[in-house]
């Protein structure tokens, strides 16, 4: 009697895609695209819509399928029809950051402000900041343990800067200075008006003297 032939394995049927998962991902992608295009952070949209930041984050990542009520609140805050949140969206080629939603660190009773200029969720290696210093204010900044290169440009006003133990240097509008973050430095607005500075922090490179 001939040996029995092994049975051919039946091809396993592919697992059907859950429609609810597809819808959740579609809504999340659409919400993220519209939010970024309008220049909202998760925090500002949470305040405008009354939907928590955590819930908005879960919706954008497709981890939570929003109810009709939540969709209506979000759409109203964004000023778009609910249908736009369930329609495919192309990622915008640009992003806007509104002044009111910018990340700002303040010191000296508001006479020193540092604004991070970058997309809200961008973990970029290079940081770009706008600094505002009130007339007569002096801001001392301690040396950093992490070595990065600081590029500082005066956009408006007159600045006196002391880097490390060097004598003070005076910078006018349009002047720039470059140094390592491992050096303590002091920024002093010696002019009669508010100074606007632009600061770029990038990976350490050797500074030419």
Notes on the structure:
Helix content is 24%, strand content 27%. The protein is α+β, with helices and mostly antiparallel strands and 209 residues long. The strands form 2 sheets. It has a 6-stranded antiparallel beta sheet, with no helix packed on it. The chain has a 4-stranded antiparallel beta sheet with strand order 4-9-6-7, with no helix packed on it. A hairpin with a 5-residue loop joins strand 6 and strand 7. The longest helix is centred in the N-terminal third of the chain and has 20 residues. The N and C termini lie far apart (94 Å).
Short description:
With 209 residues, this protein is α+β, with helices and mostly antiparallel strands. Helices cover 24% and strands 27% of the residues.
Features:
single chain, 209 residues, alpha+beta, 6-stranded antiparallel β-sheet, 4-stranded antiparallel β-sheet
Number of helices: 5
What separation lies between the terminal Cα atoms?
A: 94 Å
| Share of helix, binned | 10-25%
Mean pLDDT: 81
What are the SSEs and their pairings?
Blueprint: H1 19-38, H2 42-49, H3 53-60, H4 68-78, H5 82-85, E1 103-107, E2 112-116, E3 127-133, E4 138-141, E5 148-156, E6 159-163, E7 169-171, E8 176-180, E9 185-189, E10 195-203
Antiparallel strand pairs: 1-2, 2-3, 3-10, 4-9, 5-8, 5-10, 6-7, 6-9
